């Protein structure tokens, strides 16, 4: 069997100030055809799984481009069309093929394209025709559209948030596609829109219970795959929304019943799916009453949702309230990192940090800082087992008992080793502020006595009423009507 596989992925925050260009992909997970390393990356799961299955089963696997960029603002048209056409050209050169397996995010938006994934999958289908099996894996924060479902034989969405099951779901996709190719199954899809746009943490109930229910549904006769597209709230596109996706083996009624069942369960927990998000001072008040370490999520400034990761709102309040024994990071400030490297370890000097990209970054913070440590090319452990994430040159600076991890490559924190590799022992801090929405949880929950989620200002702010949506259909709970 001949299998073609490739990946094109980013999560687009259409309200974010930073554009996503070609350099954004080349600075991310970017591997030209045939150069992917011998390890999985977050969005190359289908390629990795196809490589393993191919070795076991004697397949010919043709590996195309893998390109994944850090979430940011709208992708430029030239960038999307160039990367898309590169993959399509590689597919044409690989023909004939029996299967096409694609790693996607599902919330990529480009100039002129509200649904990049639907466009790419439709063009793939046009090349390979109706008999070739086409499958794709998606992040749960995707915009599930009829174009995506219609162009593919099967779509599999990761179930967990944090996305700890990306590789597991990729193997599920590959195995389902192989069964389709053999004629062993004939998937029939059903999609039910909940009418909402929800953030679902699967590390606690009711999110955990929803994932367990999805797995229970997959044990029913005829049900092949059950997915939940959480959706991405900061993408102003027609396809936005939380939607249930079920495939049954030749049984449309079974698929529709299971999708309706899942959507009903999700809707019954609308009010409790998201964690409580008090404001900055209320969060700090709560943290002071708790035994540390207390990990506070500054998800509004999460680079993984398209934010700059340079906001100073929470950091400023730590100083204004005289709080210490605290750590904050990663704060993206390449200029401050360069100054710290020039000054050297142990230097004490005035520095202006953060607050550089937009109004939702806050005001720059001017203080006297001590350079505690410098690490060239800092690496942190990634979310997917066996992966690492580059942070660039990094510096740990301190002022009045508050340590800040500065990085030169914009990105969220996944693991405590981003701090500990800089010499910051977060296990001994009372307050640790992480610029991440939820992907930090898998590692930080091991050292945290408590985890709190803060509603600070930011490009990924939790109050969706503060954002002006022009392309969605109302009502979309909790957004009742357009602003104004």
SSE order: EHEHEHEHEHEHEHEEHHEHEHEEEEHEHE
Between the first and last Cα atoms, what is the distance in angstroms? 57 Å
What spatial form do the alpha-carbon principal axes imply?
globular
**Low-pLDDT residue spans:** none
- The quaternary structure here is single chain
Count of individual beta strands: 17
Largest beta-sheet characterization: 8 strands, mixed
Task: Tell me the structural class.
Answer: alpha/beta
Q: Roughly how many Å is the radius of gyration?
A: 22 Å
Arithmetic mean pLDDT? 96
- Give, in spatial order, the strands making up the sheet with the most strands: 12-13-14-15-11-16-10-17
Strand content: 15-25%
Essential attributes:
alpha/beta; eight-stranded mixed sheet; 17 strands; 484 residues; 13 helices; 28% helix
Describe this structure in words.
Helix content is 28%, strand content 24%. Strand 14 and strand 15 (402-407) form a beta hairpin. The strands form 3 sheets. It has an 8-stranded mixed β-sheet. Strands 2-3-1-4-5-6 form a 6-stranded mixed β-sheet, with helices on both faces. The model has no long low-confidence stretch (mean pLDDT 96). It is an alpha/beta fold and 484 residues long.
């Amino acid at each position: 069997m001949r299998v073609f596989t490739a990946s094109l992925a980013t999560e687009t925050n259409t309200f974010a100030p930073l554009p996503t260009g070609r350099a954004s992909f080349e600075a991310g997970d970017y591997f030209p055809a045939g150069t992917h390393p011998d390890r999985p990356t977050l969005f190359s799961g289908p390629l990795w799984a196809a490589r393993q299955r191919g070795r076991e089963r004697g397949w010919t696997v043709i590996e195309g481009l893998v390109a994944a960029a850090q979430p940011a603002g709208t992708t430029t048209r030239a960038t999307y069309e160039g990367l898309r056409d590169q993959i399509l050209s590689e597919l044409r050169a690989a023909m004939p093929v029996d299967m096409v397996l694609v790693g996607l995010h599902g919330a990529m938006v480009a100039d002129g394209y509200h649904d990049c994934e639907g466009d790419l999958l439709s063009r793939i289908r046009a090349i390979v025709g109706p008999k070739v099996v086409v499958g794709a894996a998606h992040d749960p924060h995707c915009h599930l559209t009829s174009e995506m479902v219609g162009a593919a034989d099967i779509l599999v969405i990761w179930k967990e948030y944090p996305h700890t099951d990306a590789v597991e779901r990729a193997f599920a996709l590959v195995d389902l596609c192989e069964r389709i190719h053999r004629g062993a199954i004939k998937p029939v899809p059903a999609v039910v829109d909940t009418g909402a746009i929800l953030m679902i943490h699967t590390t606690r109930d009711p999110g955990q219970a929803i994932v367990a229910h999805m797995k229970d549904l997959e044990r029913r006769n005829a049900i092949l795959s059950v997915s939940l597209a959480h959706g991405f709230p900061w993408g102003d596109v027609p396809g936005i929304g939380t939607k249930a996706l079920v495939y049954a083996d030749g049984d449309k009624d079974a698929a529709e019943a299971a999708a309706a069942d899942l959507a009903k369960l999700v809707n019954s927990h609308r009010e409790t799916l998201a964690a409580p998000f008090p404001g900055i001072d209320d969060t700090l008040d709560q943290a002071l009453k708790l035994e540390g370490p207390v990990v506070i999520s500054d998800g509004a400034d999460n680079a993984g949702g398209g934010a700059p990761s340079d906001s100073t709102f929470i950091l400023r309040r730590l100083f204004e309230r005289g709080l210490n024994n605290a750590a904050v990071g990663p704060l993206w400030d390449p200029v401050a990192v360069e100054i710290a490297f020039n000054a050297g370890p142990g230097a004490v000097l005035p520095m202006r940090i953060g607050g550089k990209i937009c109004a939702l970054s806050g005001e720059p913070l001017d203080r006297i800082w001590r350079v505690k440590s410098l690490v060239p090319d800092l690496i942190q452990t990634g979310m997917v087992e066996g992966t690492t994430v580059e942070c660039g040159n990094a510096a740990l600076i301190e002022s009045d008992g508050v340590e800040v991890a500065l990085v030169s490559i914009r990105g969220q924190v996944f693991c405590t080793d981003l701090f500990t590799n800089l010499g910051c022992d977060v296990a001994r801090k009372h307050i640790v502020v992480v610029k991440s929405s939820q992907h930090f949880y898998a590692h930080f929950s091991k050292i945290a006595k408590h985890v709190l989620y803060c509603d600070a200002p930011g490009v990924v702010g939790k109050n969706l009423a503060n954002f002006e949506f022009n392309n969605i259909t109302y009502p979309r709970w909790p957004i009742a009507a357009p602003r104004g």
